[in-house]
Amino acid sequence: MDKTKARIIDITVKLVPSDCGRKWTIVNIHTDQGITGYGEATYSHKETVVAEMINDLKEFIIGKDIWNTEEIYKILYTGARTGYRTGGIMFTSAISGIDQALWDIKGKILDSPVCALLGGPRNAEVPIYSHFSCSDINSMIKSAKSTLSHGFNALKSGITMHENLGPDVSKKQLDEIEEKYKILRKEIGEEIILMDDPHGIFDPSSAIKVAKTIEPYNLLFLEEPTGPEDIKAYSHIRKSTSVPIAGSERLTSKKQFNRFFENECVDIAQPDIVYIGGITEMKKVCSIAEAYQVKIAPHNTKGPVGIMAAAHVMASSPNALIQEFMSPGVIPWRNDILKNPLEIKNSCLVIEDRPGLGIEFNEKELNNRILK
Ligand SMILES: [Mg+2]
User: Fold this and answer.
1) Average pLDDT score over the chain
2) How far is the CA of 84 from the centre of ligand 1 (A)?
3) Which pLDDT does position 206 carry in this prediction?
């Protein structure tokens, strides 16, 4: 056996329902040298579609050299019978699951964490944040304090969009946003890092009103103030407020992000390791962002594999800011399915010096949760 000559012989997909409505789409690549790797392709509420896309892509990569992730990405993203450059976000999610699994295999063969292969250290701590709900003031404070009790010092919510589907914002809604932030800051203090995500619902003038309202409350960023299709609107909003603007989890290629950066749309880029097409493409987004002095705050609502894949890119990127992370309070059994549990220390996710992505499943616990 020569592990350095490993070639792909099969790809399998497992769906694991999580407690937050998503089915973690776990991709497993098998090689002729006995080494296997994990990737994640979860696209919320379309998981079975993505799983079938991965099955369809098998014929194009069976027999390929596992080391050549650039070539495999190119085949999958641009090929006339694969992505055809028009595959969309579910297609890039399928590509991503495959790409991550190949990097996991590389790390396992070389006995190196993926972050070290990408130019980072062998172990690291990646700053993370989690969420709180904001339906009314009392439950909002309770929810924020509950998340903080799990070891976080950074929190995000959707205060600016609560019960508003956009694109407008009323004076009454602006007053409610202001009232919530005033009380929240009083209750949790000035040191806790806060972020807000209105999920792109506002038109530009409403987004600017919202941004102006939250300016006094020292947010790390306002995420997706408007839809990412409208590059000029993003840029206009960013120039109209002192609140740093972040976006967008919905972009699916380095070229889309490059257009965002060229047009000065964001202070902070939020690639999702799954939607962007994997480690190969996300690393390039981070490097392009670095050239524009844009920081990285990955969108991440994934299972353990997708969490760690994004964290390894973050650990190797000089412009890494903070990564999204579903609180253990939301999925209390998440660590039960892992041989090496995800560890949170000082509001950071710990990357240990382990081969590949550092994920090994407790197969018995995992099998109990797989969608049959
Ligand atoms: Mg978001």
Assistant:
1) 97
2) 27
3) 98
For residues 346 and 344, what is the distance between their CA atoms, to the nearest angstrom?
7
| Domain span at 73 | 3-111
What's the gap in Å between 92 CA and the centre of ligand 1? 18
Q: How far is the CA of 199 from the centre of ligand 1 (A)?
A: 5
Report the separation in Å between the CA atom of 66 and the middle of ligand 1, taken as the mean of its atom positions: 33
Looking at the structure, do residues 232 and 324 belong to the same domain, yes or no? yes
Model confidence pLDDT, tens digit, residues 283-294:
999 999 999 999
Structure tokens at 244: 């740093």
Residue 221: CATH number of its domain: 3.20.20.120
Ligand 1 centroid–CA 16 distance in Å is: 22
> How far, CA to CA in Å, does 128 sit from each of 38, 235, 337?
22, 27, 21
- Residue 73 and residue 59: Cα distance in Å, rounded? 14
Prediction pTM value? 0.98
Rounded distance from Cα 224 to ligand 1 centre (Å): 7
Domain boundary among 96, 111, 126: 111
Give the model confidence (pLDDT) of 333-370 as tens digits.
999 999 999 999 999 999 999 999 999 999 999 999 99
